[in-house]
Amino acid sequence: MTMSSQNCKTLCKKIHDSKGQLNHLAQALEAKTQVECQEIRRTYMEMYGKDLHQLLKSIQLTNQGDEAGASSYECATALSMLMLSSHERDAVVAREALEQSAVNFKAVLEIFLGRKSSHVILILQAYQTRFNRKLEQDISSIEPPHPYQMILRALASSHKAHHAVVSEHIGRCDARRLYQTGEGRPGAIDEAVVLEILSKRSVAQLSVTFSSYKHIYGHSYTKSLKKGNHGQFEEALKAVVSFISNPPKYYAKTLYRSIKGATMEKGSLARVMVSRAEVDMNEIQMVFKKKYGMELRDAIWESIPSGGAYRVFVVALATKTTSS
């Protein structure tokens, strides 16, 4: 459902009159869908000649590095992300993840694993248009080198391949190859075999493979990665398998770690809440409650200091389910 033209204009005037006050901006946008936010951005540009996304980014930068304004910074970040189309947002997330002093590989991993191939192509195009760079080249040029780079390049190649219908037979064959070149032999796993499979199979096909592995060998593939020589490659591969095997559980754990301050990953709470709000937030909230014994909204409310717009805004995102 889209907003009426008059309602959209009225809201844009309200945003303009707020003069950048985050509590007013958050109240105006917290209940809006992604489609509505796109409509608001276009209308605001027509009415005032300014890009609402850039306006929110400027507020974000004003509060960057200010410990007292940390909540304001996060709120402006989340609001600015709402103004972007899904593929633009992913392009921005990827760029910011790669620019961090400690590269946020998991943020990029979520993009390649959690988006359809048609969407990934749009992300790559948006990245090149927006930053005049190629995402895959930026991933390859990261220094110092990290095993995540090899895995991300393989997943990028996978999205460019033409995948056949998901096959149980291929899943069983790949599972056996992973076993024979992993825990089924002494020494480290054969990274080349893993990367070949990741580069040639769709995410749906990989899900069948990891399910077949558990069925055939009686335990998950991630459990096998904990055996023997466990290094950075195995740790990165565990993140891939965890996501593919159960995305809502992966996101629930990511949110919990962010809420509890158990991760140094910058912006993970806002990133996940904005990107999953109208996708699978229902499932994430159910997993979160089952795993941690509390509602996601309550955990967020308790973790964010009162007095700012950010806490109310993020809790509102949790209500943006697929039924919105």
Automatic annotation (TrEMBL):
Pfam families: Annexin
Keywords: Annexin, Repeat
GO CC list: cytoplasm; plasma membrane
Molecular-function GO term, any one: phosphatidylserine binding
InterPro entries per record: Annexin, Annexin_repeat, Annexin_sf
UniProt xrefs under SMART domains: ANX
UniProt key word RNA-binding: no
Example GO biological process: response to water deprivation
Keyword rRNA-binding attributed: no
Name under which the protein is recorded: Annexin
Organism of this sequence: Escallonia herrerae
